[in-house]
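=== How it folds ===
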Amino acid sequence: MAGKIKEIKAEEYQTEVLNKELAVVDFYSTECPPCEALASKYEALSQIYGDDIHFIKIFRQGSRELAEKLDVTGSPTLLFYKNGELTGDKLSGGVLRSDIMRNLDELVGSVKAAELHKKIKPVETETDVVILGGGPAGLTAGIYLAQAHLKTIIVDPALPGGYVATTHMVSNYPGFIDPQPGFMLSHFMGEQAKANGVEFRAAVEVNNVDLDCKCVKVDGFETIKARKIIVATGSKPRPLGVPGEVEYRGNGISYCATCDAKYFDNKEVIVIGGGNSAIEEALFIAKFASKITIVHQFDHLQANKEAQEKVFNNPKINILFEHEPREFKKNGTMDMSVMVEELKTGKKKELKTNGIFVFVGFIPNIETFGDKLKVDQWGYIETDLEMRTNLDGIYAAGDVVSKRYRQITTAVSDGTIAAIAAGKELE
């Protein structure tokens, strides 16, 4: 195993972890994209901290009893130990390098940490194309470019898959007779990109993007220099800007039904919004919740007719038309309130609920680029028919682009066009 890492079995845990002064343990699984994203970071950090901290890996599926005892329920999971006692954070999922370093620094102390940080050397990597974003547009572009034998690196602050990975089921993607779980469709795309030779920098912190020199700095030490850049950063849920929204995000307020609906089995839920996302996600939540109230600002829904019919015929779902949320409150565990205003009269009332889901549209992820890219009135990047932006050698694709329809298939189309256009210029 590369780096200063030792892989152990459950029976060695006492000797190799609990009996050591300082240790960090990576519970990993096979066929696990987050585990793969962590592996290179874990290996690199073991080279820096490995003389002072024991770096351990353990196969979670082969050590189920130990994992359950330690309340390790996902892969990867990092645990930090000092003199046999758990300390610091339990890190899981798309683990950031900075979060690992923060916990390692706490183990060795500030003086030693400062000394070890001097071992970190800047790295420069050259590539033909950098793709910013690993959703359907970015992954498709990567597949086309790699098949054209162009060195391609996909950089994503999260894990590959984009917003599709949080979608419950996708029923309109060509090639699949049955609806596909969003995370599996994303997984297939990611694995295809890897199989064709695309490199990934996943779950990284993007420190700087210089579109003029086509340089991307990640995790504070690696600068990637490209000949072309494809911006495929997608979009994110639009915030309401209502008091209490920021405070209770992830703690009573959710933007992902696939992620959180399962926690509301036989509970009451409020859904904010009336478009396709709100209505389709409400139908998914209805598989778990006992009652759903949809709060919508207009007097009719904007969702497709099929979804509307399903909602109107679902006895669990009630719709409060011409109302808007004005404040979110948290009263206790799974005990929330929404203050809503009736738009016609201005009257306000308080709705009690166990949880709140917000689906009111999206905004493009373009903060990293400043004002260099030309955008439309809604902030989406403008491109020509070959996905070129106003900057030389910079392309854009997917949900971050100015266009009428934003679907998985249109993102895939954008990625295809951008890759082919960029590839021709690199011939």
